[in-house]
From TrEMBL:
Domain of life: Bacteria
Name of the molecule in the record: Isopropylmalate/homocitrate/citramalate synthase
Amino acid sequence: MSDTDKDRFLNPIFGYRGEFTPENLAFNANLQEFANRISLICALETGGKIPPMEAYKQIKDLWAELDRSRKNLLSED
């Protein structure tokens, strides 16, 4: 298995099917990355590789990053 295949397996990116705007597409990519990283953090914590508070801190930081992305890319109607 090549590195590209491994990356696609570990970090799948799915096509965007919502209303197309560049901002929606960019936010969707950020949201998918957020979901993938949360999944990995949860797996590491469940497997005892990182302590619960470290997992919490990482998730909290990722959430803040996603929220900034939302505020920059999506308008509130």
